[in-house]
Amino acid sequence: MAPSSSRLDLRLALPAVVGWVAVAVLIGNPPGAALGGAVGGAVAVLAAGAVLLLRARGGLRRVLALLAVCAMAASVLLLGAMARADARQPAVMLQAAQEGRFVSIEATLTQTVHDGGERFAATADSVQLEGKTLAVSVPIVVFASIDRPSAIIGATVQLSGTLTANEPGDAAAFLVFSRGTASVLGEPGGVLGAAAALRSGFLDLAQSLPGLGGGLLPGLAIGDTAAVSSELDAAMKASSLSHLTAVSGANCAVVVGLVLVLGGMLRMPIAARIVASVVVLAGFVVLVTPEPSVLRAAVMAVSVLFARLGGRGAGGVPVLSLAVLVLLAIDPWLARSFGFVLSVLATAGLLVLAGPLARFLSAWMPSPVALLIGVPLAAQLACQPIIILLSPTIPLYGVVANILAGPAAPVATVLGLVACLIAPLWAGFAQLVAWVAWFPSSWIAAVAMFFAGLPGSGLPWAEGAAGAVLAAIVTISAVLGVLASPGRIRTGSGVLVLVLLMAWLGAVGGEQLRRRLAPPADWQIAACDIGQGDAVLVRSAGAIALVDTGPDPALLADCLDRLGVARIDLLVLTHFDLDHVGGTSAVLGRVGAVLHGPPGAADDDAVLAALERGGATMTPAGRGMIGALGELRWRVLWPAERPSGFEPGNDLSVVLSFSGVGRCDAGCLSSVFLGDLGEQAQARMLAAGRAQVAALGSVDVVKVSHHGSGDQSARLYEALSARVAVIGVGAENSYGHPNASILDVLEGTGAEVTRSDTDGLVLLSSDGTGGIRVWRERLPEPTVGGGE
Questions:
Q1: Do 346 and 430 share a domain, yes or no?
Q2: pTM score, whole prediction
Q3: Is residue 201 one of the residues assigned to a domain?
Q4: Is 755 a residue whose pLDDT tops 90?
Q5: Transmembrane stretches, by residue range (predicted)?
Q6: Are residues 344 and 376 in the same domain?
Q7: Are 54 and 109 in the same domain?
Q8: How many alpha carbons fall within 13 Å on the CB side of residue 64?
Q9: Which of these, 276, 310, 320, 787, has the minimum number of CB atoms within 10 Å of its CB?
Q10: Domain with 17 in it
């Protein structure tokens, strides 16, 4: 898709950027005056430009024409967003979400749900509420398991549950927390069914391939990343190879190129070759599922093919700009999709920067080597400011890793696709081809693991919008300094880069010192030092949960004041022993909702009554209950309804899990709080809720039961495989807590142990690269690396 001339054609790029920015900003607002005013303003600019255009001449005429086209692009995209806004969040569903009412939903899956999956994307087709059925077309994310081992894209499911409305700009309009499992009503037929059968057959084939390469191959070939381990996923991100984890837009070019070459070898007419390419490309998109990068590449490929059919050339930048406008007109909410943004920026980087960078580098090295370096460098430079928003680090070895791994990706993709397509016809040969594809796939995985394990693989950078802007300034200045002609621009750019990098070094050094001396402001889990007892805070998107209150109100109040916590949205009283509820008076009148274990005495009821008088709502906990805290979903794993053999107390402690949802999924710490469960109760919980525990996967944090007593189930801790263990325990306690046996179990699972008796206050947060940042009041801060 190279431009037809060496001069870049940017005439369509500015309207695409203006329209994109306009829709990205305004879809985050509720439909109404703001959005209508923006459309009206764009139309007014368009009309004024048209009037002035009739009187203008020369360069002014071209400028006015460009402004008019920009206004037209923004108007079309905004009108499309307005037309869909009300339908995406119908008033009846918004009301049901606000009132917490149960609804029944029939929906179509927009992703494949694998065995053990408890979260999936779908489009709600109908909603039933109070006996009335409303036909809708609403994108949702469902938190539920399904009633069969797996279900494919296009399958119809039925479920009931409660709704939570997302922000207007989110890709999913609602989160649905299901009551029970989702029932699969029917599988798709036709093309979707055939594609699903091919994917399923290839996944079965890939399961026989060993190691990380076997798990990565389905992602490279057909876009299914279910078998990619969290360790490999984190390594791919750290080494700047995450675009290879699943099918990318480049694969569309490979597929179209192969069809055109084969058509030429068969002496097919150009029209027949182009038609065949479009048909094969459409089948490929259905097979690998329409991810944003695949859609972007497919629209670009079709544009180029039709331009060629008409006997005309197609410049890369205009084709990319057209693809952006077409896709945003179809789905304006792609404007806020990180996958779409990164795909467009990477492609723009290749089109605009790869050639000049390669020519610059060729002065010091052979041209093929310069091009090999210039391509991944251009993509990384273009994407880095946005990547900073996802992970505030600079992948130091990213370009080198891409140079080594990049050439293997198309080989693994093509061979994997061949194996996928021929598996139903010739299983033995498909197995052989899959084994050949396994070698480049394993090479990519090995490169990722090697570079992710090197020291300094991710250099820290400023977080948030400030970090993104700083990265953009450094990138633009560096590119100008390298590519501009000798003179003031090159000199000025070089000086600016040097100044900014010096400022960055100072800021990074200061930030590292601050993190070691002061509590991190971005903590997600805080274990208070309240002596022999438990009081642990969980924070997400400004919402706070407190699990138990410890034995002493003064110590708890001091911890809350220190952390700046004035309001508790959810208080969990796991059970009513004094070391878990003795500090409750410190939060009276400051609690919104209480989730509690079964009371066993009048004093227990008195604790609940005092909280209720303070304005809190009371809910007895039971296994299967779910709810939301900011961007976290919580689920009660224990106690079961009327479990036999246990009295209120330790063994009927509320056991709660937290896991990220929506945009928080990758950056939030998952956790499990085990109360004071003993070994027998832990074993009963594991046996009764094995599927729920298994669905948690390897959690980030476990609050160790009963202050680290020896009455523990090693099998439970092995199943949870937590990376950090939190133990609330008093110094020199008379119980011998924590017991050496549980410390041995935690060491065997690889958990980093934190203890309030030796560490004081402990704060846990994500380091932005898949690791957990552990801050101890009394010890230096280490980092537990890797993981999702």
A1: yes
A2: 0.66
A3: yes
A4: yes
A5: 12-28, 34-54, 63-83, 241-263, 270-289, 309-330, 337-357, 369-391, 403-426, 432-452, 464-483, 489-508
A6: yes
A7: no
A8: 15
A9: 310
A10: 13-88
